[in-house]
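Q: Here's a chain of 348 amino acids. Please give me its 3D structure as tokens.
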Amino acid sequence: MKKQRKSAQFKDGFSEGLKPLRPLALSEVRTVNDLVTQMSHTAFGGRSVGEAADVLHKMVSDKDCFVVLTLSGALTVAKMGLVICDLIDSGMVQAVVSTGAIMAHGFVESAGMSHFKYEPHLKDEKLYKSGYNRVYDTLELEKNLDNVELIVRKVLDKISRKTTLSSELINKRLGEYLLENAKGRGILKSAFTKKVPVYVPAFTDSELGLDLGIYNRKAKLKKKPLFRFDPLLDLESFTDLIKDRKRIGIFTIGGGVPRNWAQQAAPYLDIIQKRIKSGGGFKRYSYGVRICPEPTHWGGLSGCTYSEGVSWGKFLPPREGGRWAEVYADATIALPMIVKAVLERIGK
């Protein structure tokens, strides 16, 4: 039988090198950074927000680190677009990988159109007839999307049909359009201004992808040449972008295709070197910050831990210097707090 533990053997925490927690003192909070910094010394979700700000600050302050921002979910229709602009405009991120929906709804906003609050008394059948597309508690107008299609048509009209398109190229041209024609801020406008490439790996899974499809169908009816679209152009562009960087970091909101697509560039480079013996390399993410409410036990990639990514050769393990933080929270709550705290730290 095991002997009952003795009081003389009890440790005090400090002797083991454990970090003591601290009460959250709101009386000492003057800025968002004050709050988030104090949260890092608390527990549960609050601590994860504080620790995420610490890792993100270290990531963006590392002058040898190339930072990739990945986006999924309905962030722009949920009015997080300007937060993403802040990340780009401040120089905190050097590449963006996103769902097409985020870029499409963001373009609506950037071009001066509005989204609306959903009222529960409105039935979905009536919303459909009225041209209101519901995203949980928010409405995207069908008229907005029709207007975007007209803009996309103008942008495509200026591109030679001999050009093979990629999401990076289309997003760049849309950003250029916003710079020349829109007064307000916008994700693609900021990205174009700061020369930050924006990749949408599942481009046809979006309103912008459908607009390209409509454009080609109209061209076919008029017996005009069609645009070719090659997603491998995006893959190779992004791979070349990170290949020779000293360190790479990833800031992930949500999960899905953007997260995996950005992460898989690391094993892709390894595979290239092993199978082709040229053009590849050994590259793993040194930093990672993830905001996503998806639990790990469903087995999906959106909820998988960075630790799991180590087994795939995507992330540097902590014992080799890897720094990660994972926040299981709604991004509309955690993202603005974390980004604002880091902006205050770097003085922007």
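Q: Can you summarize the key feature?
A: The first strand starts at residue 65 and ends at 71.
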